[in-house]
Each structure stands twice: as C-alpha cells, then as structure tokens.
Amino acid sequence: MSSSNLKVDVNQNGDVKNAADTLDDINDIDFSKLLEKPRPLNIERLRSLDERSLTELSGSPQLRNADNASRAHDHADSYVFSPSVGRRSGFNTPRSVHGFESHPMVGEAWDALRRSMVYFRGQPVGTIAAVDNSEEKLNYDQVFVRDFVPSALAFLMNGEPDIVRNFLLKTLRLQSWEKKIDRFQLGEGVMPASFKVFHDPVRNHETLIADFGESAIGRVAPVDSGFWWIILLRAYTKSTGDSSLADMPECQKGIRLILSLCLSEGFDTFPTLLCADGCCMIDRRMGVYGYPIEIQALFFMALRCALLVLKHDGEGKEMVEQIVKRLHALSYHMRSYFWLDLKQLNDIYRYKTEEYSHTAVNKFNVIPDSLPEWIFDFMPSHGGFFIGNVSPAKMDFRWFALGNCIAILSSMATPEQSTAIMDLIESRWEELVGEMPLKVCYPAIESHEWRIVTGCDPKNTRWSYHNGGSWPVLLWLLTAACIKTGRPQIARRAIEVAEARLHKDNWPEYYDGKLGRYVGKQSRKCQTWSIAGYLVAKMMLEDPSHVGMVALEEDKQMKPVMRRSNSWTC
Ligand code: GLC
Asked: Which residues fall in a coiled-coil region (predicted)?
C-alpha cells in the first residue's frame, strides 16, 4: 500500500494531521467512562422506548421527558432481555444454559471466528472478511463494517463486548477523516465500507487504512455502513446495559453526522433515500439504484435505534424531532407503496395510467405491461413482501432478503405484513431457501436484461453472487425475523439445511444455482460472516431473548395504512 493512500485528518482548527497521529488520538477518548459497571439486574421489565409511540414523542413535553428515562429503560431492559450478560464465558465456546446440545459445528465456528479477529495495537478491533489464502485477496483482508455486524452480535451474545466497543470507537474516528474521491469531498458523516491495519515494518508502527468508496470497485460510498453503525451501537447498549459509550459526545456527534446526510431537505418528493447502485451489501451494479429496499429498511431501523441512543437535549433534540417526522412519513410510504400481496398485485395489473392530480390511484404512473411474468406465479395466495424498489414508472418486483428481514425486525412492517412475509418464505421455500439459505434476491436476471442491468458483469451471471445467489450470512437475519414473528420452526428448518453443508464446504461466502446447490464460482472460503451468521442464528434459537438486541417493537400509534386502489373506486 503506498503512503499516498494514507488519509489525513483536518481538525476543527484546520490543522492537518497524518493518519498515524490521528489514530493515536483514539486513546484520548475518556475510556474510564466505559469502565463504569453496568447497573444491577432489573427484574421488572421496564417500558422501553421501543414500546413508546412516535406520536407520543412528537409532543415536545414528552420529548423532554422521554429523554433520559426512556433511554435508560431501553438499556435496563437488556438485563431482562439478554441473560448472556450474566454468563460471560471469556474466550470459551459458550455452553448451553437450556440443555440444548450444540451441534459439533458450533465449536468449529467459534474457532474460525476467533481466527478472523483483527488487532490494532494489541486490541481486538474487528474481524477480517475472509480468512482465505487460496484466492486473490482483493479487499477480503479488510474489516468490513457490514460484515462485522454478525461477528459483533456473536461476541455480544457470548458476553464479550470489548471487541465491539473498540470497533465502534475506531470506526467513529475513521468517520472524522477527510474523504475524497479525486477532487470531490464526501459528506462528513460517511462511515467507511472497510478498514485494515497497516503495519509499517520500518517504523514498527501500526496505522489504519480505510476505504470510503474511493478504492472500492465502482467507487460507490457505502450508504449502509452508517446505519449498521448506529444499529450496532444500540445493540451494544442494549446487550451490556452500558450507555456510557453511546452517551459520549463523540458518539452523539457521530450519530448526528450520519443522519444529517439523510435528513437534509432537498428536491426529494419521497421520504425514502435516493441511492446509487451498489451502495449496500449488493455492492456492484445490479439495478438497485433509486430507492432500494435494503437501504430503506436499514434507514428506518437506524432512525429508530437513533431515537433510543440519542440524548434528547441540545443538538440531539432537534434531530429527534426530525427523526420522528421522517419515521412517520417513511413508514407510510413503505407500507403503502413497497408492499405487494395478491390483492395489490391484482390492483397494479388493472392500473389506469396517465392520471394527473391528487386523485390519481396509480401515483407513480406504473405501466401494467411492465409487470414481469414471473411475479404472477411467485405470489402466493397468502403472503406478501416489500418489493425491491419504487420510483416514478418503475417498480422492481424482485424479492430481497435483507430488506424484508430488517423490515420485520425494525417493525417497518406491520404485524400483518411481517406474518405475510413469513408466509411467503414458507410457500416459496424451494425458491428462497432450496438447498442453502438464503437467496439474496429472487429471481435472477438473465440474457439481455442481465447485459443491460449489470453491464455484462461476469461475477453476477444468473443465479450467482448478487444475482440470485444464496448467502449463508442471511441465516441470522432470517432466524431473528422468525423468532420475532413467533415462527422459530422456520429458522430451525433453514439451519438444518445449512448444517448439512456449510462446514463441509468450509464456510463459503455464497452458493450458486437456482437451488443454491453449488459453491459459488468465485466464492471465498472461510468467509467470516457466513461463520458468524450461523453462530448468531444458533444462539438466538437457543436463547430467543437475544433477538431483543436487533429487534424493535411495533409503534402502536403507527396504524396500518389504508390504501386507495382501483378495486375500491367502483
Ligand atoms: C462482497 C459483498 C459485500 C461484502 C464484501 C466483503 O463485496 O458484496 O457485501 O461486504 O464482499 O465480504
């Protein structure tokens, strides 16, 4: 790595520091605050902000009062929710507390997860994307923010929060770097896609090198990283009951910077977030530009998590008001326009076009002829899902797993919609789970469409990688969604399917084929998030209270929307 790749940091006084100096500053953060003991066990389940309504919060007196009380409740709650706090097992593979016998793969997975840990100046700060020396590394030797999330959850569930806290603090410092692509400067709040530890053998010194999109293939900034960071900060706080990390002024500022990027006013006519292709887990051109479901669901979840960890005073209060407004608009928009079930599909099929004015039913002027053939067979009688994208005259009907699972976990989906998503997964088991959970999206795009949409991407040929490939990491999201909707048996079935192959195949990154039968053609082995995703799924099934770290209750005041449709107009 050439020294020109090292970033510089411009502080508020305009002083420029080199990366190494900047990283020394990380140690200036008052760590003593973080050492404060968590509060004692709270037996009574307190009413958390998760359960407080946004409407309740939008009134200013409540905003004031909601502040510390409700934030504290969310944290105190964690003791009731997450018994793992009391069973720290150090660096051992966790043993079951409920007499549930671990699969032999669990021990292997823990060993592999530990091998992936990355240290910076003696402290664990993350996990490497893949410990696979057989392939060209590209950037798989980096700590990816999104990839670290399942690792972090596994560590939290096992009572090892230190690596998660270090990760949150290190990435927070990286956020303050000046980020440039050619001569263009990125927003202050952008979080890196990934970072790596660079060891300078001459100075015998370690520094961090981060990628905000300026090195990434396609040069796209990761919109999801900041959202995952906020979601993880809340999971850490919930799991440990320690709010001192989130309360640090640096963390509060970090949250505000991330959200300022998304909440600023502009030309938008929708509350959803406009994105470039490849700005999330699907980080290559796949026709997910516009308003991809993955980002909208993560945005919603991050906004709700921010409400729980932001101090509702001073600068925080103004942001809280903005968040509450946006959540109302976003949930309405998503539940109304992204939701598809048999009835809605039939309505779209019969849409009139070229309507003008407020009375329009087909607001985005979707032409029924643009409905793809496959959707008519795919849609079960019972069930539904949030489609991939909605923008003027464009509906991407593809199913995307991550967005739909996060929609359930964040309660962006109503309880009925959540049930319907699970119904759909059950009815379309072969298509979505097949021989390896879970399809990242369905169906694959092929032939001419593949050429146009992906730009002839040889990595994303049909039923491979992002184009209909099966990604074991998604198992943790599926399991969490299953538990939240009271359908753990679905997760059990999926885990059994994965257990038949994952370890034997050495934890591939993804599988190919309509049924996910083949190890992906360019799939890395020993892919850390495949390993961590499996562990998290197992631990959540064993102790469903862990789901509280990544799930938010429905806001009772957010009523399901009444949609106007042509069938009601006669
Ligand atoms: C691939 C995936 C991306 C992941 C990265 C590291 O680029 O598309 O989502 O973060 O690999 O595993």
From this structure: none
**pLDDT for the residue numbered 267:** 93
Query: Does pLDDT of 27 surpass 60?
Result: no
Domain containing residue 249: CATH number = 1.50.10.10
**Residue 365 falls in which region: left (phi positive, over 0), alpha (psi -120 to 50) or beta:** left
Least confident residue range of 97-111, 311-325, 521-535: 97-111
Q: Is 499's pLDDT higher than 80?
A: yes
Q: Which ligand 1 atom is nearest residue 194's CA?
A: 10
Q: Is the pLDDT of residue 157 over 60?
A: yes
Question: Does any domain span residue 477?
Answer: yes
> What b/e sequence results for 81-118 when a residue is b if at least 16 CB atoms lie within 10 Å of its CB, and e otherwise?
bbbbbeeeeeeebbeeeeeeebeebbebbbebbeebbb
Least confident of 62-71, 157-166, 330-339, 413-422: 62-71
Q: Which atom of ligand 1 is nearest to the CA of 144?
A: 10
- Counting Cα atoms < 13 Å in the Cβ hemisphere of 334 gives 36
Closest CA to 532 of 112, 237, 62: 112
CA distance 434 to 515: 5
pLDDT level of residue 135 (50, 70, 90 thresholds)? low
52-64 mean pLDDT:
39
Full-model pTM: 0.85
**What does the alpha-carbon distance between residue 526 and residue 477 come to, in Å, rounded to a whole number?**
19
Instruction: Rounding to the nearest 10 degrees, give the CA dihedral for residues 101, 104, 109, 111.
Output: 100
Nearest CA residue ID for atom 7, ligand 1: 283
In contact, 507 and 520? CB cutoff 8 Å: no
pLDDT band at 132 (very low <50, low <70, confident <90, very high): confident
Q: Is 97 contained in some domain?
A: no
For 515-546, letters b (16+ CB in 10 Å) and e give bbebbbeebbbbbbbbbbbbbbbbbbbbbbeb
Instruction: Return the higher-pLDDT residue of 49 and 565.
Output: 565
Span from the CA of 445 to the centroid of ligand 1 (angstroms): 20
Q: How many CB atoms lie within 10 A of CB 392?
A: 11
| Ligand 1 center from residue 250 Cα (angstroms) | 28
Q: Quote the number of domains for the chain.
A: 1
- The alpha carbon of residue 389 and the mean position of all alpha carbons in its chain are separated, in whole angstroms, by 17
Name the helix (H) or strand (E) containing 180.
Answer: strand 180-181
- Specify if 560 maps to a domain: no
- Per DSSP, the three-state class of 315 is helix
- 316 versus 467: the higher-pLDDT residue is 467
| Domain assignment of residue 55, yes or no | no
- Which residues form ligand 1's pocket by a CB distance below 6 Å? 129, 144, 146-147, 281, 283
Enumerate residues 6+ apart whose C-beta is below 8 A from 49: 66, 70, 71, 73, 74, 307, 308
